[in-house]
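Many introductory courses stop at the sequence. We go one step further.
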Amino acid sequence: MFYKISGNTSPTAQTVVLSSGLGGVHSFWKPQLAMLEQHFRVVVYDQFGTGASQGTIPAGYRMEDMADELAGLLNTLKIDRCHVVGHALGGIIGLHLAQRYPALLESLVVINGWATLDSQTRRCFQVRQDLLLNTGVEAYVRAQPLFLYPADWLSAHAELLEQEQTHQVEHFQGMENLLHRLQALMSSDLSGSFDILNTPTLAFSCKDDLLVPWHCSTTLAHNLPNGELVQMSYGGHAMSVTDSETFNPILLEWLLRFAPPSAESSQPTETSWPKH
C-alpha cells in the first residue's frame, strides 16, 4: 500500500491519519497538509485498489476489509495510537476501525459520513453507477464534480476541473474496483454498533451537500456515546476543498484538544515510501 509520512518530528507529536473518500487517493488532503504538519505527524495513503496502491478488489469486499487494511498499515508503521480523519467512505473506514480496533484511536473525525445509507445518497450512487456501466469512465468522471462541489465553485474553477478530469480518467482505479468499493460502502450499516463506538468522534456536515444530507451527520453524532457535531453552511460534499479556510481551523481545534501541552510546532519534514 502506498503511503507518505510528513510533519512534526517531535517525539511527543501525535499522529493524524487522513483517509479519502470513494476516489481513495491521498492528494484529496492537500488543502489540510501544511496546517496539520505544523503540529502532527501526518500519514496519508492510497486505499487498496486506488492510485499507487495497485491491486484487484474481489467481489464481496467489505468496509471491514478497508478498516483491516488501514490497521495493517498502522501496524507496519508501528503506530499504536492515532487520530483518523476520514471523508465520506474514509470516515466510514474510521467508524469500522473504531469498532474493530478501538485501542488504535485517539479520536475520529467523520466528514459527511453516516451510520446507515440515506435514500438520497443511494440515489446519487445509483446514478453514478449507471453512468459508469452504461456510458463509461469519461462520463462518470465528468459528472463526479456535480456531486462534490457547489454550483458557484464549479463555475469559478472550470479550468481546474478540466485538468482534474483528464488526470482522473488517465489514473482511473478501474471499473470493477470502483464498483466493488461502492457496493461495500452502500452495504455498510453501523446503526447497531452505536453503544460500542466509544471513540471521541466529531461528525462534520455541510448544509449544501447534495450527496450526503446534513441530517446524516446529526443522527450519527447524537447516537454516538462521545459524538459531537459541526455543521458548515457552504462548500458541498467536498467542503474541505472548497472552503478550507472555514474547515481547517475547526479541524485543528478538535485535534489539538487531544494533543499534549508539549506538542509544539516544528519544521515539517517529509518522507515517502513506495507501495507495499
